[in-house]
Write the structure tokens for this entry.
Amino acid sequence: MRCVSLPRMPATNPMNPTPLAKPAPRAMGARTQALLDLLRSRKRLLVMTHNNPDPDSLGGAVGLQEFAHKAAGIPSKLAITGKILRAENKAMVRELALEMDKLDALDLAGFDCFALVDTQPGFGHTFVPAGVKVDIVIDHHVCADARVGPADVAFYDVRNDVGATSSIVAGHLLEAGVVPSAQAATALAYGIRTDTADLSRDVSDLDQKAFDYLSPRIDRKRLAAITNPRLPVAYFKALKEALSKVRMYDGVTLCSLGRTTSAEMVAEVADMLLRMEGTRVVFCGGMVGGSYYVSVRTELGIDAWSLLRAGFEGEKGSCGGHGSVAGGSVALEAADARALRRLERRLERNVLRAMGASGGNAAMLGDIDD
Ligand SMILES: [Mn+2]
């Protein structure tokens, strides 16, 4: 092909204005088209998440609802199980006026389409009512408990290389040309931010592209209110307790919170400890109700889920993760202090062995020189 160099023209010529060319309609990807076709064939959608939904699951759910409404023209409801615990997550629901129902309070006969976002059928922290056939699965986790694959679900979109489920959902909005409301854009963007640590961890091209698409539509004031909510006194008490229990072994930071307020507290302490100099891996656990929850965070290059599985070896636990983030729980039959201590010791031994760290080199946080 011959290239002809043309003289540079000014962008606009006042004597002869040329209208801006309309962007060519983008070809919708096959996955988005399949989601659209499925929703168009149904009347009413129910979106479900994992128990105690986090921002990524809420963002993904709200985004999917908007896709169903604006692209496919079908109404939907969002159903949750468990509670919304973390102060930021409560602020997200409040600030964005998210509407949701308790799953067990809904008449499921009113729905002919069921979606799970940010989780999959079979995952330990996910409840699918008996008799419900899940039609849509959108997720980014890997988990040994997965009970379905692409062949079992009408629309199965699981991408382990993506940092947030909210990014996958926002990608579908973008492909379908749906302009998200400020509510959905803010919810999706906050979901991406929390799962990717502000686009710094486990980020794929899609996470970046999705965030850029949402960015001009985010309600910045509300996002700021969500990010920095007031925190209850119990939070600071739990934090004080947590810091007194941090132990470090050559790059492995362990923290046992004992009995604590919520699984979210365990995750939050794990996030915070990964920021400590010299830490390559954080393994943090705490007892909530009859279950012992664990959060693992790792430096780049160390797979969090593999490490958590190694920690859970020999236990009847359930866990999942993606990249440098993993979480799981073990149900304790006798939830007394002794059983808890024993479990913590077993997990610790497994993790240290997996990391090749020697148990003899433990140091408490207070005893380490800066
Ligand atoms: Mn997620």
Observations:
- The chain is about 35% helix and 20% strand.
